[in-house]
Write a structure and sequence with these properties.
Order of helices and strands of chain C: HHEEHHHHHHHHHHHHHHHHHHHHHHHH
Largest sheet of chain C: 2 strands, antiparallel
Mean pLDDT of chain B: 88
Low-confidence stretches of chain C: none
Strand content of chain B: under 5%
Chains: A mainly alpha (508), B mainly alpha (102), C mainly alpha (630)
Number of helices of chain B: 3
Largest sheet of chain B: none
Radius of gyration of chain C: 30 Å
Structural class of chain B: mainly alpha
Low-confidence stretches of chain B: none
Radius of gyration of chain B: 17 Å
Strand content of chain C: under 5%
Number of strands of chain B: 0
Strand order of the largest sheet of chain C: 1-2
Shape of chain C: globular
Helix content of chain C: 55-70%
Oligomer: heterotrimer
Distance between the termini of chain C: 107 Å
Distance between the termini of chain B: 56 Å
Chain lengths: 508, 102, 630
């Protein structure tokens, strides 16, 4: 049972790393690295083994594990994997390995506890991506939150406590809304069918009264929208991303945000088809607002890390747009966007972290001409700036064009505005390159060395992956496709209700 | 046994309680506050006994025994706190201990 | 041989992949072999393919090759596929061969630069992207190349990145073209949504069978695609980036900003000509934009003092010429002009580069002068290029391609006469400013330092290009001068023939005479205005005194100021205004409210035990009263 075993490896590895750090910090690092690498290798092998006979039209589920937990209340320990979960778990472990590697020199205090938290977050995220029992899902949802809080508040930058508390309150408050929704869904489902259970599969197709469905859906939606993050719930993100240590930023941007998009596709759309369809115009509009608003804010930032954080708001707007486009293209695009954003933004955070380690500032106004001093770093920044602006050949282009192609049919005007976001993305991406890497060489108080071997390896791998996703994304699409098809089967009439323009309007 | 009218008993208990309460609120010395608490506890015990005799129930006396025990425990803890308090502040003025204000 | 089509873009990519990561390790000599070498091999491969292409029967003249499926979701199935037909073949031949010559030239031109390998890496990547743009069989592949050339253009304009001005120019180029690209993206999405395919040939077939001329869909799709073309090809109103793009090294200006990339818009319209033909109004708009751009840049070119900016404005105007041809449906004429223009404009830029290099990076034409004796090879080849640009009759390629366009414009169904007269005026102006440029740079007295002669790769390249600038026009000649129709016949398998109104002998004569007259009159006027006396310049800055209107033309008609005032500055201002994110205020206010409540209630928490007892008592009394009292 792959996800459970990996979670065990990570939790035990975390405890072991914590204990081992009493003797030597290096051993904690190596243990953490070994645990994440083992998990990553396992998940990859699993994918390779299953890629040959992925279910095509039957069940999208690759494997399932169900054990009674608190039988009295219909709670079970229920994990299951489909392509959507698997690819996100692989991304989790991949970024997990990179997070351990980037923390190698950055983290010097309480190394053991740091890696304990890191591995437990990863375990929680994997749980979120594979839990098929709503109670268990909520359990994992909270489990990834608390170590993340520690990660920000202990190893963060100057304003870390404020950021950590803000992060915690936002996610906790929205998580409570979700809990309320889960419980009321549980009661409604139990009263309607007599079967009191938290099982996701049992709850699919519950025939809720429309008004009730709307409210319960909203509870889930808010929790996921805060994580995503959707404007106007995004303001925790710039603070948390900026203040977190590099590994924390990578995990926040690369993985935690994805739990929001995943939750929308896994729970909100299938559980509340009618309510979701009604909600689509609003959600898509908010997605587009996020795309534009995040891009505008990104340009204004002077803190490089904060700038990158705001680009996440912009990029995740595409996820929201794609999810609520109710087309297979849009859903595939959203999935791709989650993966590619994880890679490209993760890379940018690692670069900014490396830069901060060297020159002890994140202030764009104090940078300039870094390319001359560190050409490899400049090249890497250029590559991921290009990925971030959606250059074809990079994975982000594939995802963005899929989202746009998916949403165009139903809402051409919104799509046109979202496409404008690509121009704004160009503006801020080139702003990074121009201010930090080009121009006159600034004088730094600390010597600026180029990327060293470990960083070159990390950047090289990330570059290869983002290019692979850009020019040969088919394996990923093939893996995700059964899951997308099963969502589509819930919406047989496709997109009837989501039209947000008058029929026969000029762009129809 | 010549019976004392119950409202006398309750009246005395109420008087004692009020004396204790007013003492508690007005005295600043911790030792006197403890004594006031003792008075209040005993007034409650007196009310119990009086009520028990009115209804011919032994519960009232049982409750008094409980109160006695509680009072003993309270005095023990209270005096210990008092000693510590004195050691800390070199006074028994309760208003000196106001660090817990919001 | 046709199976090797993938090698054509792959070889330059290969060059990039070797040069980019190892740019600091490879010795210069190896770079100067690899850089031009891969482009040369690519050109050779393509020529071989061209040979087998010609042997195909005319009815099925296209080569198709699919490497792998890119994305496959429902009908969204773009693949990494190449489609070679007469249109893309002509353009690819020009790109590879001219590209090779420019690479060769660059070996000498960039010899002293520290980032020699990086330069060739970018150039190779550019050639690869350009070929993908031309060969892509679906709109997404085309877009891949389209954005790829944009990236390379950005990287190469900002090649000397240490100067923030170069960076600003590079950024401007990228962002302005990207605005057009957004329109194009919307057009692509619209076409896909409508026809459920991205394959260009299928798309055109479905468009032709679905839409009637003037259908809304066709007009909308064509306008959106036109948006992309305007950005890439620097036509009004998105032309502002090209003059600034001259910040890049001169070979870059020759290759990207004159010969190849900027004509991508022309290619896009020619490639999707079916859609444009179904939208006659958009066609007229294309022609008008072309004409206006020609007149606009003609005036601007007349007053520039930077040799490269003169050429940049002339590029804008020549692409305007091509747009004019496209707009009247003369697609093969536009492509013919693209070909001759690529040759003579590359020649002019490289000649300008030779001058700049020999004067130690001096670009102000008023610090040149009298160079015809010191730099004879450069002078003669530049003269040939200039003559071709001016459309000097009979012996230059530019004359024939311009004549072909003018004939087509004359016979255009709508507003033909007006467009024709406008085009003649523009041709006249072109001849005039070319004359001005040559007179100031090569004649008169020497005003600059003593030049040193350029090295042999530069001279060889110039001579080769000059030869073709004279001869490339003979593929297509007007009826009175032999009536060769080789080029239009060759491209007829991919492009519709222009409307050839049966003109009388007199009309033929009139057309030819007008073209000859416009060119010659322009040259004479140029001589009369600029050539009879030395230019009057300020001795310190070597700049002339401009009158108000000249200053207006010099600055590109105030477009930059306008855009800065209406778009750039308000955007940056608004973004800066909201730096601290107004939406965060919601939560800040919420938090402040909670904190205020906290302060209010914590007043009661006095820390005084006796107060607490008093409160407890009061509470108990109130509670008792509530229970006991009725």
């Amino acid at each position: 049972m792959m996800p459970l075993s990996i979670m065990l490896i990570l939790t035990l590895g975390g405890l072991l790393a914590w204990a081992a750090a009493r003797f030597s910090a290096a051993s904690a690092r190596w243990i953490a690295l070994a645990a994440t690498v083992a998990g990553f290798a396992w998940s990859l092998v699993f994918w390779l083994r299953h890629s040959a006979y992925l279910p095509t039209d039957a069940s999208p589920w690759l494997l399932e594990l169900k054990a009674p937990w608190i039988a009295r209340y219909g709670i079970s320990f229920h994990l299951a994997l489909d392509g959507m979960s698997l690819i996100l778990i692989i991304l989790t472990l991949f970024l997990g390995v990179l997070s351990v590697l980037t923390s190698w020199r950055e983290i010097t205090s309480r190394v053991g506890f740091f890696h304990f938290n890191l591995l437990w977050i990863l375990a929680g995220i994997i749980g979120v991506f594979s839990a098929m029992d709503l109670f268990l899902f909520y359990f994992f949802w909270e489990m990834m939150l608390i170590p993340m809080y520690f990660l920000i508040s202990i190893w963060g930058h100057e304003n870390r406590v404020y950021a950590a508390v803000k992060f915690f309150i936002f996610t906790q408050a929205s998580g409570l809304l979700m809990l309320a929704s889960i419980l009321s869904l549980y009661w409604w489902h139990g009263n309607l069918t007599g079967d009191f259970t938290f099982s996701y599969f049992a709850m699919l197709g519950t025939d809720l009264p429309p008004q009730t469905a709307r409210w319960i859906m909203l509870g889930f939606f808010v929790a996921f929208a805060v994580k995503l993050p959707m404007v106007p719930f995004h303001t925790w993100l710039p603070d948390a991303h900026t203040e977190a240590p590099t590994a924390g930023s990578v995990i926040l941007a690369g993985l935690l945000l994805k739990t929001g998009g995943y939750g929308l596709m896994r729970f909100v759309l299938p559980l509340f088809p009618d309510a979701s369809r009604e909600f689509a115009p609003l959600a898509m509009t908010l997605g587009v607002i996020g795309i534009i608003y995040g891009a505008v804010l990104a340009l204004a930032q002077t803190d490089l890390k904060r700038l990158v954080a705001y680009t996440s708001v912009s990029h995740l707007g595409f996820v929201l747009l794609g999810v609520y486009s109710f087309t297979a293209l849009g859903w595939h695009g959203s999935m791709m966007q989650m993966i590619c954003h994880g890679i490209s933004t993760g890379a940018l955070f690692i670069l900014v972290g490396g830069l901060y380690e060297r020159i002890h500032t994140r202030d764009l106004r104090k940078m300039g001409g870094i390319w001359t001093l560190a050409p490899r770093m400049g090249a890497a920044a250029m590559i991921f700036a290009m990925a971030s602006l959606g250059l074809p050949g990079m994975g982000n282009f594939v995802s963005e064009i899929l989202v746009l192609a998916g949403s165009y049919r139903n809402s051409p005007w919104l799509t046109a505005v979202a496409a404008l976001g690509l121009v704004l993305a160009t503006v801020y991406s080139l702003h990074i390159v121009q201010k930090a890497f080009h121009g006159k060489t600034a004088t730094f108080d600390h010597p600026l060395t180029d990327l060293h071997v470990r960083e070159i390896v990390v950047m090289g791998v990330l570059t290869v992956v983002i290019l692979w996703l850009g020019i040969f994304p088919r394996p990923v699409i093939r893996l995700v496709n059964p899951a997308v098809m099963s969502i589509q089967s819930i919406y047989p009439e496709g997109t009837a209700g989501v039209s947000v323009h008058t029929p026969g309007g000029p762009l129809s | 046994m010549a019976s004392i009218p119950v409202h006398y008993v309750i009246g005395l208990a109420g008087l004692l309680f009020s004396i204790g309460l007013i003492g508690l609120m007005t005295r600043r010395n911790l030792l006197f506050m403890l004594i006031c608490i003792e008075i209040m506890l005993n007034s409650a015990g007196l009310a119990f006994i009086g009520a028990g005799s009115v209804w011919n129930q032994s519960d009232g006396q049982v409750m008094f025994l409980f109160i006695l025990a509680v009072a003993a425990a309270e005095v023990a803890v209270g005096l210990a706190l008092l000693l510590l308090y004195f050691r800390q502040y070199r006074t028994l003025d309760i208003d000196r201990a106001s660090q817990m204000r919001g | 041989m046709a199976d090797l089509l993938w090698l054509v873009p792959a070889l330059p990519l290969f060059g990039f992949l070797i040069l980019a990561p190892l740019s600091r390790r490879i010795p210069r000599s190896v770079v100067s072999v690899i850089g031009p070498g891969v482009v040369f091999l690519s050109a050779l491969t393509l020529t071989g393919i061209a040979a087998s292409f010609i042997s195909l029967p005319e009815t099925s003249r296209s080569i198709h090759q699919t490497l792998w499926s890119w994305i496959s979701i429902g009908a969204f199935t773009p693949s990494f596929g190449f489609h070679l037909d007469a249109l893309s073949l002509v353009m690819c031949l020009v790109v590879t061969w001219v590209g090779f010559l420019i690479h060769l030239y660059s070996v000498a031109y960039m010899a002293d630069d520290t980032a020699f390998a990086r330069f060739f890496a970018y150039m190779n990547l550019f050639v690869c992207a350009m070929l993908i743009l031309l060969l892509g069989d679906n709109l997404l592949m085309l877009f891949l190349g389209w954005e790829g050339v944009g990236l390379c253009s950005y990287l190469l304009i900002g090649f000397w990145y240490a100067d923030p001005e170069n960076g600003a120019a590079a950024r401007k180029a990228f962002i302005v073209t990207r605005i057009g690209d957004t329109a194009m993206t919307i057009g692509v999405l619209y076409l896909f949504t409508h026809f459920q395919t991205l394959d260009i040939q299928q798309l055109l077939a479905r468009a032709a069978s679905t839409w009637t001329p003037g259908a809304f869909g066709a007009v909308f799709a064509a306008s959106m695609l036109l948006g992309g073309a305007l950005g890439k090809s620097a036509q009004l109103p998105l032309q502002t980036w090209l003059p600034d793009a001259m910040a890049g090294p001169t070979p870059v200006s020759a290759l990207i900003h004159a010969a190849t990339m900027v004509t991508a818009g022309v290619y896009l319209i020619a490639r999707t000509h079916t859609i444009f033909e179904l939208a006659p109004d958009v066609m007229v708009a294309v022609a008008l934009i072309g004409l206006l751009t020609m007149l606009y840049s003609g005036f601007s070119a007349m007053v520039q003092y930077d040799i490269k900016r003169v050429l940049a404005y002339s590029t804008i105007s020549q692409i305007g010429f091509m747009f004019l041809a496209l707009g009247v449906g003369a697609f093969s004429a536009a492509i013919f002009h693209f070909m001759t223009h690529a040759i003579f404009k590359a020649l002019l830029f490289l000649g300008a580069g030779a001058v700049i290099l020999s004067l130690h990076h001096e670009q102000n034409i008023f610090r040149m002068g009298g160079l015809r004796r010191e730099l004879p090879v450069t002078f003669w080849t530049f003269l040939i290029g200039g003559a071709a640009l001016a459309g000097f009759p009979l012996i230059t390629a530019g004359f024939y391609s311009k004549e072909m366009i003018l004939t087509a414009v004359y016979g255009a169904p709508r507003a033909g006469m007006l467009l024709w007269i406008g085009a003649l005026i523009a041709a006249f102006m072109t001849a005039m400013y070319v004359t001005r440029l040559i007179l100031i740079v090569f004649f008169g007295t020497a005003r600059g330092p003593h030049p040193h002669a350029p090295s042999w790769p530069i001279q060889v390249t110039l001579v080769v290009l000059a030869f073709f600038a004279l001869t490339a026009g003979f593929f297509e000649t007007p009826p009175l001068l032999g009536g060769v129709t080789f080029f239009s016949h060759f491209t007829s398998t991919a492009l519709p023939a222009a409307h050839h109104p049966h003109l009388s002998h007199a009309a033929d004569l009139l057309l030819l005479g007008a073209a000859v007259f416009a060119a010659l009159a322009g040259i004479v006027a140029g001589y009369l205005v600029f050539g009879r006396r030395e230019p009057v310049v300020d001795p310190k800055t070597s700049l002339p005194q401009w009158s108000g209107i000249e200053r207006f033309f010099l600055g590109g008609w105030g477009f930059d100021t306008l855009y800065a005032a209406t778009i750039t500055r308000p955007y940056v201002f608004l973004a800066d205004l909201n730096r601290r994110d107004i939406l965060d205020m919601i939560y800040t206010i919420l938090a402040a409210g909670v904190r205020g409540l906290h302060r209010m209630t914590s007043v009661l928490q006095t820390g005084q035990l006796r107060w607490y007892t008093a409160f407890v008592t009061m509470g108990a009394v109130v509670l008792l009263a509530w229970v006991v009292l009725p």
